[in-house]
Design brief:
By secondary structure, this protein is mainly beta. The protein is 2% helix and 47% strand. It has one helix at residues 37-42, and strands at residues 2-6, 9-14, 20-26, 29-30, 50-52, 59-60, 64-67, 70-73, 84-85, 95-99, 103-110, 121-130, 133-142, 148-150, 154-159, 165-168, 172-176, 182-186, 198-199, 207-211, 216-221, 226-232, 238-242, 249-255, 274-276, 281-292. It has a nine-stranded antiparallel beta sheet with strand order 10-11-12-13-26-22-21-16-19, with no helix packed on it. β23 and β24 form a beta hairpin.
Length: 293
């Protein structure tokens, strides 16, 4: 376990578990949900505080897609066995390549195509802890001999306590079909509208992607006198909000593409995943800025 400290912030992460985060805290307040010792011992990345979404985010319908005229079938996810989900870089050991008291760099190579993903790639994460923020740089390089699709994202979890609220501006939300795959972009109204900011409900299930957001989201815990501003780079064109009603945590995920972006849906807002030429890279940064209210 790697620990970075830049008072009052502290970060712990495990390179061998997808370079995933086990804890991110401001003094004694957990910004991300804290990973239990049992989950750390079991290597259960799904239960970690935050993990990378590489080489794609969210679901791919039935694990199937077509790229450059070739049909592909991916291994289905254990959590949602209907689809492939969240990429698989999080399940592999990463290499710690550099570390100081406030920074850590990790790398991962996926050299051999499998049913996890048909294209080889290199990936990296750089964690920088400043006194008021955590900055994570994500990147992927296409090491295939031909063009390949590529996507990035982060999946941080937060606790629904202290009267927590969420605010961000988006142009639309993706309405889903019965398989939880986006089908149509619609205005974000009612419980899906976070433009004015409102509490995360314990009764409203949201598991939706939003497009046209301004790469800025704000979470606040009034009872704990804490505010978190998430500032994402321009490559993160979408944001996913997940508020399960059967748990006390929720997720707000900056990502580079909508769920199932490898399969066009015909919507006017639809956009494909990024295609990288051989040797080309895609990278961006997300800052998590902590302030006291």
């Amino acid at each position: 376990m790697i620990t970075l400290q830049n008072a009052p912030l502290r970060l712990t992460l495990l390179p061998e578990r997808g370079a995933s985060i086990a804890s991110f805290q401001h003094e004694n307040f957990q910004i991300f949900r804290e990973t239990s010792p049992q989950s750390i011992a079991a290597g259960d990345v799904r239960a970690f505080s935050c993990f990378p979404l590489i080489p794609y985010s969210n679901r791919i319908r039935a694990g199937k897609f077509t790229f450059a005229g070739q049909h592909y079938a991916l291994k289905h996810d254990e959590e949602d066995p209907r689809h492939a989900m969240h990429g698989t870089a999080r399940f592999h050991p990463w290499r710690l390549t550099a570390q100081t008291q406030t920074t850590a760099s990790c790398e991962f190579s996926f050299p051999t195509p499998t049913d996890e993903w048909p294209f080889p790639y290199n990936a990296w994460q750089i964690f920088t802890l400043e006194p008021d923020r955590l900055i994570i740089e994500l990147g992927i390089e296409n090491t295939h001999t031909a063009p390949a699709p590529a996507g990035l994202g982060l999946h941080p979890y937060y606790l629904r306590h202290g009267g927590v609220t969420l605010q961000f501006n988006a142009a639309y939300v993706w309405r889903k079909d019965a398989e939880d795959i986006p089908k149509k972009s619609i205005p974000d109204a009612g419980k899906f509208d976070f433009r004015a900011g409102h509490p995360i409900s314990a009764t409203d299930l949201i598991d939706h992607a939003y497009g046209g957001w301004d790469q800025r989201a704000t979470l606040a815990w009034p009872a704990h006198n804490r505010r978190l501003t998430v500032m994402a780079g321009d490559i993160f064109q979408d944001i996913v909000v997940y508020t399960p009603t059967i748990r006390e945590d929720f997720a707000v995920e900056p990502v580079t593409h909508r769920p199932d972006a490898l399969n066009p849906n015909g919507d006017p807002h639809d956009a494909p995943m990024t295609t990288l030429a051989p040797g080309a890279t895609l990278s961006g940064k997300v800052a998590f800025i902590v302030t006291e209210r």
